[in-house]
TrEMBL record:
Belongs to the MND1 family. Keywords: Coiled coil, DNA recombination, Meiosis, Nucleus. InterPro entries: Mnd1, Mnd1_HTH. It comes from the Eukaryota. Its main location: nucleus. PANTHER family: MEIOTIC NUCLEAR DIVISION PROTEIN 1 HOMOLOG (PTHR31398:SF0). This is Meiotic nuclear division protein 1 homolog. Residues 16-75 form the Mnd1 HTH domain. It is found in: Nucleus. GO terms for cellular component: nucleus. It comes from Rhipicephalus microplus.
Length: 173
């Protein structure tokens, strides 16, 4: 027995789309379920799902007339759809190129005055030293925060409030 390789969903979509382009006609689902297996090798059970996915993607049009649903797609529509997509992509590319130029100009403006020089290196070194000193002073200040007169005054106020609360509760005993 030979194992047959299954057809991918994308391949089924292409085959069913070829049916529409080759026949250039309007079909009902039952017609497509007959044509699909015979001419394109798409199993009848998968035809409905494949056609529905083509309709969802806008590659095939459908219309319900009375109790019947008709499907159609013509090569001219595919061409116009592709042209429209190409135009949209060209517009996006142009916008991206404009943004790229804008940001390149911004970068060039930002780099003016930032050329590597000995003066710039000295200033950067001095800046890093000053930042390090600031961090050391902040750490030292944090250590001595307990001796801060404002903090001590706040602690005294909290102690008084606590003492009054204790007296209030113990006086009732």
């Amino acid at each position: 027995m030979s194992k047959r390789k299954g057809v991918s969903a994308e391949e089924k979509r292409q085959r069913m789309l070829q049916v529409f382009y080759e026949k250039k006609d309007v079909f009902q689902l039952k017609d497509l379920e007959k044509i699909g297996p015979k001419e394109k090798g798409v199993i009848a059970q998968a035809v409905k799902d494949v056609v529905q996915s083509l309709v969802d993607d806008g590659l095939v049009d459908s219309e319900k007339i009375g109790t019947s649903v008709y499907f159609w797609s013509f090569p001219s529509k595919a061409v116009s759809t592709r042209k429209r997509k190409i135009d949209e992509l060209k517009t996006k590319v142009e916008e991206a190129q404009k943004k790229l130029k804008f940001f390149e100009n911004q970068l060039a403006k930002a780099q003016v005055g930032r050329e590597d020089s000995s003066e710039r290196e000295e200033l950067m070194t001095k800046l890093s030293e000053l930042e390090r000193d600031r961090d050391e002073v902040a750490a030292e200040l944090e250590k001595h925060k307990d001796c801060d007169p404002e903090v001590l005054e706040e602690v005294k106020k909290q102690t008084l409030v606590a003492k009054e609360a204790v007296n209030r509760w113990t006086a009732k005993l």
